[in-house]
Specification:
Elements: H1 48-54, E1 78-80, E2 86-88, E3 129-130, H2 146-165, H3 169-191, E4 193-197, E5 203-210, H4 217-255, H5 262-287, H6 292-317, E6 322-324, E7 328-332, H7 333-354, H8 359-387, H9 403-423
Antiparallel strand pairs: 1-2, 2-3, 4-5, 6-7
Length: about 425
């Protein structure tokens, strides 16, 4: 049996010392020693026990006196590193225990996994599958890819502005599309399962736990469309009636799926009705006024300025004073102050220039928008922590999912709508 990975057949009588310059065990046809000097001084992370298993000579060609080609490990042996990432080695001719080639080798070969130090691990080669976490892509100081975030933000802003300045009903379609994508992301996050890790961060195979919440997506999607259309056509009264009917439809739909976990799923479904399409409906309500496009633009500018000001102030100041470290460690009071200041200034300018209001009215609206949008961001962070997900999705590069951008807008929409209705 040819056990050499070099493809040749070992010479019948390999001359001893054929390669005097190579240390023992590095000659492809030389013999391995017992490695007595390697085990006591093995690098941190090596386990001596697996080496003991391969020292004695055995009829299968492993142990003292076996050639380097004969001492290769069988394919499929899991090599566990210190962080329990598993490397599955590529098949080697004659050493796959499942191919029947060792039927005449005596007792079956069972090798213990070897613990290797990650610092000495080889780079993955062709034919080797490496499982485990891959190195994270570099991001900015605040945890996002800034060029990508700016590019995606400008693209989304361009779509919104174009819909407002051309055919305003298109804005309702844009809002509906965002709500439907957010609904899809939220339904996936509710039902997602998360791996259970111990204190050291290790995860046992198959050990998962998840919320498993099943929200009725079909009545939610149909009801969302009805709510936004009713808000545009019938105003606040239409939005209220459509919201009530959608909540009832969600409860009835879930009843047809049986009583198990009914209260949990129904509660999550009704929560979704109010969290997504109902709050988004206030942006559509702004559009119903005579200067609706300007009100919507003011609303979006305020929330964007609050987020931008908070990001910039947090990065510049270092964010030393955390706002809610157990909910969102990246939020700081310095960032919050920066968002409030920038939103107040933007509100004063927008209300004076576009809505013919007083500067102080715009400043009040800006401060309120910044405060409520921060609360909306924290609320979504709380939801993600409860569901054990980092982002609701990955559709928007540099931002995460659609829900990761809607959180601030959803919370600020009813507040801005109300204050603008009072002031202007």
């Amino acid at each position: 049996m040819n056990d050499s990975t070099w493809g040749g057949t070992p010479p019948a009588d390999p001359p001893a010392g054929a390669h005097p310059d190579l240390p023992p065990g590095h000659d492809p046809y030389g013999s391995y020693g017992a490695w007595p000097e390697q085990v006591p001084d093995a690098p941190t992370g090596y386990d001596a026990a697996p080496y003991d298993a391969i020292r004695p000579g055995r009829p299968d060609g492993h142990g003292d006196g076996a050639t380097r080609a004969q001492q290769h490990f069988p394919a499929g042996v899991g090599v566990r590193t210190q962080d329990d990432h598993t490397q599955v080695l590529s098949p080697i001719a004659g050493h796959d225990p499942d191919d029947g080639s060792q039927a005449d080798a005596g007792e079956p070969f069972h090798e213990e996994p070897i613990r290797r130090d990650p610092a000495h691990a080889e780079a993955p080669r062709e034919g080797r599958v490496v499982t485990g976490d891959q190195p994270a892509k570099p991001v900015g100081k605040a945890g996002r890819n800034l060029p990508q975030a700016i590019g995606v933000g400008l693209a989304l802003g361009g779509v919104i502005v174009a819909s407002l300045l051309t055919v305003q009903v298109l804005f309702v379609g844009v809002v509906l599309l965002a709500v439907l994508v957010g609904l899809w992301e939220l339904a996936g996050a509710f039902g997602r399962a998360e791996a259970v890790a111990d204190a050291a961060g290790r995860t046992a195979q198959g050990a998962t736990v998840g919320r498993g919440i099943r929200i009725p997506v079909i009545p939610l999607a149909v009801g969302s469309a009805a709510m936004l259309i009713a808000a545009y056509a019938r105003g606040a009264q239409g939005l209220a009636v459509a919201t009530a009917l959608t909540a009832v439809a969600v409860m009835i739909w879930r009843m047809t799926e049986g009583p198990e976990d009914f209260l949990r799923d129904m509660t999550a479904g009704v929560f979704t009705v109010f969290y997504l399409p109902f709050l988004a409906g206030f942006a559509v309500l702004m559009l119903g006024d005579d200067d609706g496009a300007k009100r919507v633009l003011t609303f979006i500018v305020l929330v964007v300025c609050a987020d931008t000001g908070a990001y910039a102030a947090g990065v510049i100041s270092g964010g030393r004073h955390k706002m809610a470290p157990t909910i969102s460690p990246g939020k700081s009071w310095e960032g919050f102050a920066g968002g409030v200041v920038l939103a107040a200034a933007a509100g004063a300018l927008c209300v004076m220039s576009m809505l013919d209001g007083a500067w102080w009215q715009g400043a009040v609206v800006g401060v309120a928008a910044a405060a409520v949008s921060a609360l909306g961001d924290l609320a979504e962070s709380m939801i993600k922590r409860d569901l054990k997900v980092k982002d609701m999705g990955s559709l928007l590069p540099g931002h995460g999912g659609v829900m990761d951008r809607l959180d601030s807008l959803l919370a600020a929409a009813p507040v801005v709508w109300l204050l603008l209705a009072v002031f202007v």
